[in-house]
Amino acid sequence: MRQSVTACVAVGANLGDARQTVLQSLNDIGRIAGCTVMATSRLYRTAPWQAQGPDFVNAVVRIETNLTAPELLQALQAMELAAGRERPYLNAPRTLDLDILLYGDSRIDSPALTVPHPRMMARAFVLYPLADVLPDFVQREDLLRVQDQAVDRLD
Protein backbone atom coordinates (compact mmCIF):
# COMPACT_ATOMS: atom_id res chain seq x y z
CA MET A 1 0.00 0.00 0.00
CA ARG A 2 1.19 3.51 -0.85
CA GLN A 3 2.13 5.92 1.88
CA SER A 4 -0.52 8.51 2.68
CA VAL A 5 -0.06 12.10 1.45
CA THR A 6 -1.75 15.29 2.65
CA ALA A 7 -3.49 17.08 -0.20
CA CYS A 8 -5.68 20.17 -0.40
CA VAL A 9 -8.50 20.52 -2.90
CA ALA A 10 -10.30 23.75 -3.79
CA VAL A 11 -14.06 23.35 -4.25
CA GLY A 12 -16.15 25.97 -6.03
CA ALA A 13 -19.42 26.42 -7.88
CA ASN A 14 -21.48 29.27 -9.30
CA LEU A 15 -24.35 27.60 -11.14
CA GLY A 16 -27.45 25.98 -9.67
CA ASP A 17 -27.54 25.61 -5.89
CA ALA A 18 -23.84 26.38 -5.53
CA ARG A 19 -23.83 26.26 -1.73
CA GLN A 20 -25.43 22.80 -1.64
CA THR A 21 -23.17 21.55 -4.42
CA VAL A 22 -20.06 22.64 -2.50
CA LEU A 23 -21.32 21.11 0.75
CA GLN A 24 -22.17 17.83 -1.00
CA SER A 25 -18.81 17.77 -2.75
CA LEU A 26 -16.93 18.22 0.52
CA ASN A 27 -18.67 15.06 1.75
CA ASP A 28 -18.25 13.21 -1.54
CA ILE A 29 -14.49 13.77 -1.61
CA GLY A 30 -14.33 11.80 1.64
CA ARG A 31 -16.11 8.93 -0.12
CA ILE A 32 -13.42 8.57 -2.79
CA ALA A 33 -11.63 5.28 -2.13
CA GLY A 34 -8.23 6.08 -0.65
CA CYS A 35 -9.22 9.54 0.64
CA THR A 36 -9.98 10.64 4.19
CA VAL A 37 -11.19 14.18 4.95
CA MET A 38 -9.07 15.74 7.69
CA ALA A 39 -10.51 19.28 7.66
CA THR A 40 -12.95 21.43 5.70
CA SER A 41 -12.93 25.18 5.53
CA ARG A 42 -15.79 27.54 6.06
CA LEU A 43 -17.75 28.50 2.95
CA TYR A 44 -16.92 31.77 1.21
CA ARG A 45 -18.82 33.77 -1.40
CA THR A 46 -16.85 35.68 -4.00
CA ALA A 47 -17.57 37.51 -7.20
CA PRO A 48 -16.21 35.74 -10.28
CA TRP A 49 -12.51 36.50 -10.63
CA GLN A 50 -11.25 36.26 -14.19
CA ALA A 51 -14.50 34.39 -14.83
CA GLN A 52 -18.15 35.11 -15.58
CA GLY A 53 -21.56 34.42 -14.13
CA PRO A 54 -23.08 34.61 -10.65
CA ASP A 55 -21.08 34.73 -7.42
CA PHE A 56 -19.12 31.63 -6.47
CA VAL A 57 -19.31 29.60 -3.30
CA ASN A 58 -15.82 28.34 -2.42
CA ALA A 59 -14.20 26.06 0.13
CA VAL A 60 -11.07 23.97 0.60
CA VAL A 61 -10.81 20.44 1.93
CA ARG A 62 -7.64 18.91 3.40
CA ILE A 63 -7.42 15.17 2.86
CA GLU A 64 -5.10 12.28 3.50
CA THR A 65 -4.87 10.07 0.44
CA ASN A 66 -2.96 7.09 -0.82
CA LEU A 67 -3.97 7.90 -4.40
CA THR A 68 -1.35 9.27 -6.73
CA ALA A 69 -1.92 12.86 -7.85
CA PRO A 70 -3.13 11.71 -11.32
CA GLU A 71 -5.51 9.20 -9.70
CA LEU A 72 -6.87 11.91 -7.40
CA LEU A 73 -7.29 14.28 -10.36
CA GLN A 74 -9.18 11.59 -12.28
CA ALA A 75 -11.54 11.00 -9.33
CA LEU A 76 -12.17 14.74 -8.93
CA GLN A 77 -12.83 15.21 -12.63
CA ALA A 78 -15.33 12.34 -12.50
CA MET A 79 -17.13 14.20 -9.69
CA GLU A 80 -17.19 17.38 -11.82
CA LEU A 81 -18.72 15.46 -14.74
CA ALA A 82 -21.31 13.85 -12.47
CA ALA A 83 -22.27 17.35 -11.30
CA GLY A 84 -22.83 18.45 -14.90
CA ARG A 85 -19.56 20.36 -15.38
CA GLU A 86 -19.13 21.64 -18.90
CA ARG A 87 -16.15 23.50 -20.32
CA PRO A 88 -17.55 25.44 -23.30
CA TYR A 89 -14.85 28.14 -22.96
CA LEU A 90 -12.08 29.23 -20.60
CA ASN A 91 -13.39 30.28 -17.17
CA ALA A 92 -17.01 29.50 -18.05
CA PRO A 93 -19.51 29.40 -15.17
CA ARG A 94 -19.47 26.01 -13.52
CA THR A 95 -21.69 23.65 -11.61
CA LEU A 96 -18.59 22.33 -9.83
CA ASP A 97 -14.88 23.12 -9.97
CA LEU A 98 -12.36 20.95 -8.13
CA ASP A 99 -8.66 21.82 -8.19
CA ILE A 100 -5.76 20.10 -6.47
CA LEU A 101 -3.92 22.92 -4.73
CA LEU A 102 -1.27 20.93 -2.88
CA TYR A 103 -0.21 17.30 -2.96
CA GLY A 104 2.23 16.80 -0.10
CA ASP A 105 5.48 18.56 -0.95
CA SER A 106 5.26 17.42 -4.56
CA ARG A 107 5.98 19.65 -7.50
CA ILE A 108 4.16 18.41 -10.59
CA ASP A 109 4.23 20.07 -13.98
CA SER A 110 2.46 17.98 -16.59
CA PRO A 111 -0.03 18.83 -19.34
CA ALA A 112 -2.86 17.55 -17.09
CA LEU A 113 -1.78 18.85 -13.67
CA THR A 114 0.37 21.51 -12.07
CA VAL A 115 0.98 21.32 -8.32
CA PRO A 116 1.22 23.49 -6.33
CA HIS A 117 -1.64 25.18 -8.16
CA PRO A 118 0.08 27.98 -10.10
CA ARG A 119 -2.43 30.74 -9.30
CA MET A 120 -3.54 29.87 -5.77
CA MET A 121 -1.41 32.53 -4.05
CA ALA A 122 -3.07 35.27 -6.14
CA ARG A 123 -6.66 34.27 -5.38
CA ALA A 124 -8.49 35.34 -2.23
CA PHE A 125 -11.18 32.73 -2.87
CA VAL A 126 -8.47 30.07 -2.44
CA LEU A 127 -6.29 31.63 0.26
CA TYR A 128 -9.03 32.35 2.82
CA PRO A 129 -10.42 28.80 2.87
CA LEU A 130 -6.90 27.35 2.59
CA ALA A 131 -5.96 29.31 5.71
CA ASP A 132 -8.85 27.59 7.52
CA VAL A 133 -7.43 24.11 6.85
CA LEU A 134 -3.67 24.88 6.72
CA PRO A 135 -3.20 27.97 8.91
CA ASP A 136 0.60 27.63 9.02
CA PHE A 137 0.81 27.59 5.23
CA VAL A 138 -1.03 30.85 4.47
CA GLN A 139 0.81 33.86 5.84
CA ARG A 140 -0.61 37.25 6.78
CA GLU A 141 1.29 38.80 3.86
CA ASP A 142 -0.44 36.38 1.48
CA LEU A 143 -3.86 37.61 2.63
CA LEU A 144 -2.78 41.25 2.47
CA ARG A 145 -1.71 40.75 -1.15
CA VAL A 146 -5.29 39.77 -2.12
CA GLN A 147 -7.20 42.13 0.18
CA ASP A 148 -8.66 44.01 -2.81
CA GLN A 149 -10.59 40.86 -3.82
CA ALA A 150 -13.92 40.80 -1.98
CA VAL A 151 -14.57 37.63 0.03
CA ASP A 152 -17.63 37.09 2.26
CA ARG A 153 -17.63 34.27 4.79
CA LEU A 154 -20.92 32.39 4.75
CA ASP A 155 -22.29 31.08 8.04
Explain the overall architecture.
With 155 residues, the protein is an alpha+beta fold. It has one domain (5-154): 7,8-Dihydro-6-hydroxymethylpterin-pyrophosphokinase HPPK (Alpha-Beta Plaits, 2-Layer Sandwich), CATH 3.30.70.560. Helices cover 27% and strands 28% of the residues. It has four helices and eight strands; from the N terminus they run βαβββαβββααβ. The chain has helices at 18-29, 69-82, 124-133, 140-145; strands at 5-13, 35-40, 43-46, 56-65, 97-103, 108-109, 114-115, 151-154. Strands 1, 2, 3, 4, 5 and 8 form a six-stranded antiparallel sheet that branches. A two-stranded antiparallel ribbon has the order 6-7. It is globular and about 45 Å long. The chain starts with a strand and ends with a strand. The relative contact order is 0.23.
In short:
This protein has 155 residues and is of the alpha+beta class.
Key descriptive features of the protein:
28% strand, 8 strands, Alpha-Beta Plaits, alpha+beta, 155 residues, single chain, 27% helix, six-stranded antiparallel β-sheet
Number of helices: 4
What is the straight-line distance between the termini? 39 Å
Shape, please?
A: globular
The CATH architecture is 2-Layer Sandwich
Q: How many domains in all? A: 1
Query: Any idea what the radius of gyration is?
Result: 14 Å
Q: Which structural class do you get from the secondary structure elements?
A: alpha+beta
Reading off the top of the CATH hierarchy, the class is best stated as Alpha Beta
Overall average residue pLDDT: 91
Give helix and strand order, one letter per element, not per position: EHEEEHEEEHHE
**CATH H-level superfamily title:** 7,8-Dihydro-6-hydroxymethylpterin-pyrophosphokinase HPPK
Q: Main sheet, how many strands, which sense, barrel?
A: 6 strands, antiparallel
Low-confidence stretches: none
Per CATH, what is the topology? Alpha-Beta Plaits
Percent of residues in helices comes to 25-40%
How many DSSP E strands?
8
Sheet-strand content, in percent, reads 25-35%
